[in-house]
Amino acid sequence: MQTMFFAATAGELARLAGAWSCGLDARAAGVRLAYADAADLDPAQLLELDTLTTGHDPVTVREALLTPAREIGVGAALAPGALAQGTEEQVVLTVRTALYRQLSRRADDARLRELAERWEARSWGVDWDAARYFGLLRGLAMLSELATRECRGVYVRFDV
């Protein structure tokens, strides 16, 4: 599985973490997963998106994004707001509420295109262009709207 953003409640996140640590999928966890595929996006790009969108200090964003850490083992639960490292293969990060709420407010294409262009300009040495960022932002904006409406968190899973 590649990098993906997803919306989940704390209970769903715990079930997903348990299933993923056993090599199972969301269906096996009993979760109908709403997600946006992010292909090969990396944590540094997520940090750039957050600081670009929210205007918050990169050090503060980095600390919030990467701490605290917990390993996901068989049947282990994941605390909301926590970074969790999988069984050597997966990392689940919490997308900050400030970021996904901003994205849900910027759901129109013109604003998302502008944000995609600014994101591309700040991302050096990455094989992403504005069109690709725009596609991800559209999916992430829709996911953010769903999460806000259904009182869920937004998370991102990276395979490492």
Task: Provide an overview of this structure.
By secondary structure, the chain is an alpha+beta fold. Helices cover 48% and strands 19% of the residues. It contains six helices and six strands; from the N terminus they run E-H-E-H-H-E-E-E-H-H-H-E. It has helices at residues 10-21, 43-54, 58-66, 97-105, 109-122, 130-149; strands spanning 3-8, 34-39, 69-71, 83-85, 90-94, 153-159. Strands 2-1-6-5-4-3 form a six-stranded mixed beta sheet, with helices on both faces. Strand 4 (83-85) and strand 5 form a beta hairpin. Helix 5 (109-122) packs across helix 6. The longest helix has 20 residues, at 130-149. 32% of the residues are buried. Mean pLDDT is 83; it is low at 68-87.
Features:
single chain; six-stranded mixed beta sheet; 6 strands; 160 residues; alpha+beta; 6 helices
Biggest sheet statistics:
6 strands, mixed
Strand order of the largest sheet: 2-1-6-5-4-3
| Overall geometry | globular
Query: Oligomeric state of the chains?
Result: single chain
In helices, the fraction of residues equals 40-55%
Terminus-to-terminus distance: 10 Å
Low confidence ranges = 68-87
- Structural class per helix/strand content? alpha+beta
Question: What Rg, in angstroms, do the CA atoms define?
Answer: 15 Å
Number of strands: 6
The helix/strand series, from N terminus to C terminus, equals EHEHHEEEHHHE
Q: How confident overall, as mean pLDDT? A: 83
Q: Number of helix segments?
A: 6
Share of residues in strands: 15-25%
